[in-house]
């Protein structure tokens, strides 16, 4: 049982620059070769973080809320919570989803005031988040923009833990329902991160009981299987799971780099199940190229052939979008 040792929220006055107005559509997403890496561990000490944003694209949309909990030995010892003034009116869809309005952001601090304080709060701590690559990518871009340096913290993704606990949808709402956790204000960062942490510790207990130790759990991610050599033609859809309302229904998707929160086979299977079309490589049919956590060759700083093919498509007027795996999983869940 977690004990909250902090009663007051942290909030600061607005100052500095404001961001530009952008669209909500998921567009190009950067893959970062100098960011931290995902760890398949079950830590008791970490900083859990959740963001609310104006859209999916980490280099074209903006953070409107950050909430974080500092956990030490399984106990909440500090917290960070603030809205972020983006300097323009929010789309109605975002306000409806989050409950955050323009008037709520009017006197909030800008990202230029928030990020230095968040960096001081998190320091070099291990981060934890649900669908972590989404939050990490946004923070990476914010660090580069405000601090002129990358976010290099390693992180744990609770989706990876959830894979070892239950099947089916692994959205935060599905995870809460499965584990009996109440999220009083879904899509508000403070409530979401509190629910995420509670779910994580419940799942951690289940995983330790199942595998016997953290070391044995880690081994399940390190085994060398055939999943990396999976072919799209091997993936067979489950007809009962097809969702014609999914933003990925009928979309052709290729993958490059290592998918960090699950195997490539699992990602392709989830896509196929809802009616998407996984591909082995980018073609002129490709709608999305999903870039995993290792989408670039770190040693040579060289882009993959699939990324080059996607860029070639766009130069010919073919709208092949490159997106991070975090955005892919958001779209997969219909958000």
TrEMBL record:
Q: What are the transmembrane regions? A: none
Give the matching PROSITE patterns: BRCT
- List, in alphabetical order, the Gene Ontology terms for molecular function in this entry: 3'-5' exonuclease activity; DNA binding; DNA-directed DNA polymerase activity
Could you list this entry's UniProt keywords, alphabetically sorted.
Exonuclease, Hydrolase, Nuclease
Domain BRCT residues, every copy: 243-335
| Pfam families hit by this protein | BRCT, RNase_T
> In Gene Ontology terms, what is a biological process of this protein?
DNA replication proofreading
Question: Superkingdom of this entry's organism?
Answer: Bacteria
GO CC, sorted alphabetically, is: cytosol
NCBIfam families, per this entry? dnaq
**What name does the UniProt record give this protein?**
BRCT domain-containing protein
Provenance organism:
Actinomyces graevenitzii C83
């Amino acid at each position: 049982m977690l004990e909250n040792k902090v009663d007051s929220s942290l909030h600061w006055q607005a100052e500095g620059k404001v961001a530009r107005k952008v669209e909500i559509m998921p567009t190009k997403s950067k893959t970062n070769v100098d960011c931290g890496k995902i760890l398949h561990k079950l830590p008791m000490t970490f900083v859990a973080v959740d963001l609310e944003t104006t859209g999916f694209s980490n280099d074209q949309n903006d953070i409107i809320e950050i909430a974080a909990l500092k956990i030490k030995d399984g106990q909440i010892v500090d917290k960070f919570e603030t809205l972020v003034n983006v300097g323009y009116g929010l789309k109605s869809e975002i306000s409806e989803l989050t409950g955050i309005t323009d008037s709520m952001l009017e006197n909030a601090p800008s990202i230029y005031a928030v990020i230095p304080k968040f960096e001081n709060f998190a320091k070099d701590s291990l981060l934890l988040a649900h669908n972590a690559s989404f939050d990490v990518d946004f923070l990476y871009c914010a660090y580069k923009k405000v601090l002129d340096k990358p976010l290099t913290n390693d992180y744990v993704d609770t989706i990876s833990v959830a894979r070892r606990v239950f099947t089916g949808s692994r959205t935060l709402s599905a995870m809460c329902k499965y584990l009996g956790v109440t999220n009083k204000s879904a899509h508000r960062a403070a409530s979401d991160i509190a629910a995420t942490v509670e779910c994580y510790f419940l799942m951690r207990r289940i995983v330790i009981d199942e595998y016997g130790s953290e070391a044995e759990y880690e081994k399940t991610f390190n085994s060398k299987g055939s999943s990396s050599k999976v072919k799209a033609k091997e993936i067979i859809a489950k007809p009962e799971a097809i969702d014609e309302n999914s933003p990925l229904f009928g979309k052709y998707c290729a993958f490059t780099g290592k998918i960090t929160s699950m195997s490539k086979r699992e990602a392709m299977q989830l896509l196929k199940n809802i009616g998407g079309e996984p591909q082995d490589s980018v073609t002129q049919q490709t709608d999305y190229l999903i870039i995993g956590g290792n989408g670039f060759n770190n040693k040579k700083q060289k882009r993959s052939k699939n990324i080059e093919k996607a860029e070639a498509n766009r130069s010919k007027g073919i709208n092949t979008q490159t997106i991070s795996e975090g955005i892919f999983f958001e779209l997969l869940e219909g958000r």
